[in-house]
From TrEMBL:
<comment type="subunit">
    <text>Part of the signal recognition particle protein translocation system, which is composed of SRP and FtsY.</text>
</comment>
<feature type="binding site">
    <location>
        <begin position="104"/>
        <end position="111"/>
    </location>
    <ligand>
        <name>GTP</name>
    </ligand>
</feature>
<keyword id="KW-0547">Nucleotide-binding</keyword>
<dbReference type="InterPro" id="IPR027417">
    <property type="entry name" value="P-loop_NTPase"/>
</dbReference>
<dbReference type="GO" id="GO:0005886">
    <property type="term" value="C:plasma membrane"/>
</dbReference>
<keyword id="KW-1003">Cell membrane</keyword>
<comment type="function">
    <text>Involved in targeting and insertion of nascent membrane proteins into the cytoplasmic membrane. Acts as a receptor for the complex formed by the signal recognition particle (SRP) and the ribosome-nascent chain (RNC).</text>
</comment>
<feature type="binding site">
    <location>
        <begin position="250"/>
        <end position="253"/>
    </location>
    <ligand>
        <name>GTP</name>
    </ligand>
</feature>
<keyword id="KW-0131">Cell cycle</keyword>
<comment type="similarity">
    <text>Belongs to the GTP-binding SRP family. FtsY subfamily.</text>
</comment>
<keyword id="KW-0378">Hydrolase</keyword>
<protein>
    <recommendedName>
        <fullName>Signal recognition particle receptor FtsY</fullName>
        <ecNumber>3.6.5.4</ecNumber>
    </recommendedName>
</protein>
<dbReference type="InterPro" id="IPR013822">
    <property type="entry name" value="Signal_recog_particl_SRP54_hlx"/>
</dbReference>
<dbReference type="GO" id="GO:0051301">
    <property type="term" value="P:cell division"/>
</dbReference>
<feature type="binding site">
    <location>
        <begin position="186"/>
        <end position="190"/>
    </location>
    <ligand>
        <name>GTP</name>
    </ligand>
</feature>
<dbReference type="InterPro" id="IPR004390">
    <property type="entry name" value="SR_rcpt_FtsY"/>
</dbReference>
<dbReference type="Pfam" id="PF00448">
    <property type="entry name" value="SRP54"/>
</dbReference>
Length: 298
């Protein structure tokens, strides 16, 4: 079994799995559509996306004159795959240093994701620098520091309570001076004072752009797949603040709500770049839409 098949077990068994039995043997009737719609909503695909999927499938069924429900299963698979952007050929922009801002709320898995990405790209031979710009949480800085030490990746961090913009600026300057290939900046994610968080993110974004023209080259939003439609709200507010260029969906292995990937895709129109399929560094996998859809539908 692949990492994907194992990692997506909950979504497959608890939500999308219903669809296979639903479309098992019968003729396509109005009930088929109602049941399919209910199953997709239950799978956390969101109302709009669900309705749009159903409409599109109905059109296909009409056009091709399909009558057997099992034929619908294959059409659904194609439809779901096509709803997701294919992953870009290269995730890291060609610019050197390439600067990526990691954004997302606390608990989404942002800090561990920064470390896992650092490991992946240093294994690929890139010179990586991490920056801990979440100066509000001493624990976040410490956590990234521990990872950085363990993985032997250099890190720039500020004092607790210091200016996150200043940390980001210093990190970009250091990346330029040291010939870094990839700078990953972990930003703050506290939820309760959301306005300030968003203002601060804008500032970090601006400062990074001042330190290096064209930077940041990517803004990657880390979303916790266990939070379902809440993640959609987060995606909206982060995207309004700093245009998100890619999504990282963590904790898919702990979630039955994998259907949210389609809602997020519809909302943001940017590719999902990585999927978190477990806690180990190698469980963070480059997103593959075929593996994903096959893993949830089986
Ligand atoms: P942050 O507050 O956003 O920086 O979140 P952390 O990076 O501290 O992660 C919060 C928790 O989620 C940690 O215990 C991580 O090990 C865990 N986590 C992150 N990604 C995944 C994943 O893909 N699967 C599972 N099961 N746990 C994850």
């Amino acid at each position: 079994f692949s990492k994907w098949f194992n990692g997506l077990e909950r979504t497959r068994k608890q939500t999308f799995g219903r669809i296979s039995s639903l479309l098992g043997t019968s003729e396509i009737t109005n009930d088929t559509w109602d049941d399919l719609e209910a199953a997709l909503i239950q799978a956390d695909m969101g109302l709009e996306t669900t309705q749009s999927v159903i409409e599109s499938l109905k059109a296909t069924v009409d056009k091709e004159g399909l009558t057997h429900a099992p034929e619908l299963q294959e059409k659904l698979r194609e439809e779901l795959i096509n709803r997701l952007d294919p992953a870009p050929e290269s995730l890291i922009p060609a610019d050197r240093p390439a600067v990526i801002l990691l954004v997302g709320v606390n608990g989404s898995g942002k800090t561990t994701t920064a470390a896992k990405l650092g490991k992946r790209y240093s294994n690929e031979g890139l010179k990586v620098l991490l920056a801990a710009a979440d100066t509000y949480r001493a624990a976040a800085v410490d956590q990234l520091q521990v990872w950085a030490d363990r993985l032997n990746i250099p890190i720039i961090s500020g004092q607790t309570g210091g200016d996150p913009g200043a940390v980001a600026f210093d990190a970009v300057e250091a990346a330029k001076a040291r010939g870094t290939d990839l700078l990953l900046i972990d930003t703050a994610g506290r939820l309760h004072t959301r306005f300030n968080l968003m203002e601060e993110l804008k500032k970090v974004h601006r400062v990074v752009g001042k330190a290096l023209t064209g930077a940041p080259h990517g803004v990657w939003l880390v979303l916790d797949a266990t939070t379902g439609q809440n993640a959609l709200q987060q995606a909206r507010s982060f995207n309004q603040t700093t245009r998100v260029t890619g999504v990282i969906l963590t904790k898919l292995d702990s979630s039955a709500r994998g259907g949210m990937a389609f809602a997020i895709q519809r909302e943001l129109h940017v590719p999902i770049l990585f999927a978190g399929l477990g806690e180990k560094p190698e469980d963070l996998q480059p997103f593959d839409r075929n593996e994903f859809v096959n893993g949830i539908l089986a």
